[in-house]
Amino acid sequence: MAAGEGINPISQFEVRDIVPIHFGNLNLSYTNSALFMTVVFLLSAGLMLLGTANHALVPGRLQSAAEMTYEFTANMVRQTAGREAMRFFPFVFAIFMFVLFSNILGLIPYTFAITAQIVVTACLAILVNGLVVVYGIRRHGLSWFRLFWPSSVNIALRPVISLIEIISFLSRPISLSVRLFANMLAGHITLQVFGAFVAGLAAAGIFAVLAPLPFVMTIILSAFELLVAFLQAYVFAILTCVYLNDAIHPGH
Amino acid sequence: MAGGPDGERDDDALHARLASLSRSLDAGKSSPDQPDVTSTGEDSTLASAIGLGFRVLTEFVAGIAVGALIGWALDRWLRTSPLLLILFLGLGTAAGFWNVYKIATKPTGSRSA
Does a structural domain hold residue B1? Predict the structure, then answer.
């Protein structure tokens, strides 16, 4: 192993062109990021299609996995945003599956973590919040903006509170995207740094006896990252429901 | 635009939701999966505590960041250099606390205990 240089914890996030496609100034290349998005799509679609292919009364492994993810997400949508929000179930389910599969796929060595790219998470967050605004206005007209004009507050304080509410609303896409991005980025960097410690110590003569210590840490961190991968997908999906709840019932 | 028919539909939907809520509450009281929740409790509370912690952290920071960004942009636009930045930094901090307060008072997600 190259001990001094060669292990750069950031290089794993580099987007590389696989099939270069250029239209004038536009770079539409098929990158490793796009490749893994395709893989995530195929895996999640494959799970649902194969899982629901034969409707066994006693479900097999794939079928119960597919049914569990469906039930889990459906319960989440119903509990957080109400029965009416089930019209957004396909949207929430798609987001949950995409984030979950890309988080977990990114943990496998030599894969690319899509959700550790701020562009991807920011696009998802803007999509969610854009949907909230568009649906809220379409559904409730301009009265949806009463979300920012809380009637329970003293009229003298209301302009200030309203400004704070607007800033609070604008901070949602940022917190939503940064949370997922930062968790995945930090996790992958930590894993790689501890992996590099193992390689570095093993090549350092007498200190090689210490090499198992960071190795054990890597194992523990891998398990922890698996928890974080699921948890962040869950948090992303449940916040999507919470925000959609604001679009459907702005009075609350 | 959001006048009569929409409002009625809202009311109907609300009644339906209330009915379903009370039904599921009744079901929850006597459901046999209640002990199941507590038996897997340790793992899920740790996980949701981590999730909640990250939520509080990011929402707080995001409020301040957005306030600062708005103040800075308005300052550049109106050439009032530090004034609006200071004002919106304060408002952004308030928005950050407001975000955290909303999380704390309305525990969304897992069943509120």
Answer: no
Q: Kindly identify which residue of chain A lies nearest to residue B98, measuring between CA atoms.
A: A168
Residue with the larger pLDDT of the pair A126 and B34 = A126
Chain A hits for B70, CB-CB cut-off 8 Å, are 167, 170
ipTM value for the complex: 0.77
| Tens-digit pLDDT profile for residues B52-107 | 888 899 999 999 999 999 999 999 999 888 899 999 999 999 999 999 998 888 65
Is the residue at B28 inside a domain? no
| Residue B57 covered by a domain | yes
Chain A hits for B47, Cβ within 8 Å: 227, 230-231
Do A164 and B54 lie within an 8 Å CB cutoff?
Answer: no
Q: Do A168 and B63 touch (CB under 8 A)?
A: yes
Partner-chain contact A80 B109, CB within 8 Å: yes
In this complex, is the C-beta atom of A143 within 8 Å of any C-beta atom belonging to chain B? yes
Tell me which chain B residue has its CA closest to the CA of residue A84.
B13
Per the structure, how many domains does chain B have?
1
pLDDT in tens, B34-65: 333 333 445 678 878 888 888 899 999 999 99
Least confident range of A28-37, A199-208, A214-223, B35-44: B35-44
The pTM of the full predicted model, rounded to 2 decimals, is 0.79
| Assigned domain for B5 exists | no
Q: Secondary structure of chain A in the HEC alphabet?
A: CCCCCCCCCCHHHCCCEEECCEECCEECCEEHHHHHHHHHHHHHHHHHHHHCCCCCCCCCHHHHHHHHHHHHHHHHHHHHHCHHHHHHHHHHHHHHHHHHHHHHHHHCCCCCCHHHCHHHHHHHHHHHHHHHHHHHHHHHHHHHHHHHCCCCCCCCCHHHHHHHHHHHHHHHHHHHHHHHHHHHHHHHHHHHHHHHHHHHHHCCHHHHHHCHHHHHHHHHHHHHHHHHHHHHHHHHHHHHHHHHHHHHCCCC
